[in-house]
Amino acid sequence: MAVMTGEGALAVYARAKELEREGHSIIHLELGEPDFHPSTFVNQALKQAVDEGKDRYCAVAGVMTLREAIANYLHDTRNVEASPANIVIAPGCKIALFMAMMALIDPGDEVLYPDPGFPGYPSITRGLGGIPVPFELSERNHFQADPDEIATKITPCTKLLITNSPSNPTGTVYSDQVQRRLAELAVTHDLLVLSDEIYARIIYDGQYLSLMNYPEMEERTLIIDGFSKSFAMTGWRLGYTVAPSRIVPALQMLAVNSYTCVAEFSQYAAIEALKDREGATPRMVGEFAKRREQFIGDLNRVPGFRCLPPEGAFYAWVNISETGMSAEDLCRIMLEDAGVAAIPGAAFGAAGADFIRFSFASSTATLQEAVGRILRVSAAWQGTVAAR
Length: 388
Description:
Layout: H1 8-21, E1 27-28, H2 40-51, H3 64-78, E2 87-90, H4 93-104, E3 110-115, H5 120-127, E4 131-136, H6 147-153, E5 158-164, H7 176-188, E6 192-196, E7 221-226, E8 239-242, H8 248-256, H9 264-275, H10 280-299, E9 306-307, E10 315-319, H11 327-338, E11 340-341, E12 343-344, E13 355-359, H12 364-377, H13 379-387
Parallel strand pairs: 1-11, 3-4, 3-5, 5-6, 6-7
Antiparallel strand pairs: 2-8, 7-8, 9-10, 10-13, 12-13
């Protein structure tokens, strides 16, 4: 436990809630939580499942009907061919991620992961006795992974490559060229790949490409996905892993020894979510696209802020190096003096030290108000920007 770390987003959220209890007005742009809710069909399916007594223990890997629905969904939305037998349902993507890493990592194994990236990747690796090895997502490379850099970091101890596209926090969607090279490296060096695809439905241009689609990757790739982001079901805690057949028994064994199974009634509601009869997901993504255009433009008006439009997810990854202040100090000023909660980039890794992450999963009016508040306190660093 001593080598694991927490999440910057949750730490900022805790302080923001303290300020709210003291009577301060806080705009929450720290958590990656859509300001939408599941459709009425999903809620009705949940109620019906409860009324029908679907509140019992169920299959460890998940209700077969849901696993079949996920297999169809993956085929329809990202051209992934997955058997229901290769899908294991978990109570949230974090548990799915944790269990997958527990099944794969032995003490001393090296794990390649993106920096900046989701803080759980290195934390879980260390907790399991593995060695986290970062590869940089740099602004000069448009935050794409650099296969050449990754190749230099592969050793005989490298076991696992973690990818996250679209990326949290940068919003980068890995290009076909990059993913093809990553797949080639995985095959050449016999690496397992953990493809975190939780934001796969939230992209603004083009069609999503999963690493599992590339030659010889089906046998070595695990997909982590869930319902929190694409279906605005954050509090439902529903995730899943798509794994090669030889790894599924390990995931089931871990489930048996931990959560037993996921709540039966919520799984039946998830089936309805996947049907998306009202087109809720495309509508939500369309709204995010409008917010992205407006919010990125507004942030670039703040002195010392520089932000590229994200290709996916709903995060603005803002370079603040020209302010002359640290991201931590800027976030403190914005929270304490302006009531705007955001996350210092170092919370996502050393490569994020000169950045701040904002979530734009809030209404347009809220985002406009947030930038207005930031502009009002920007006098704290405007002198430094002018001097530059």
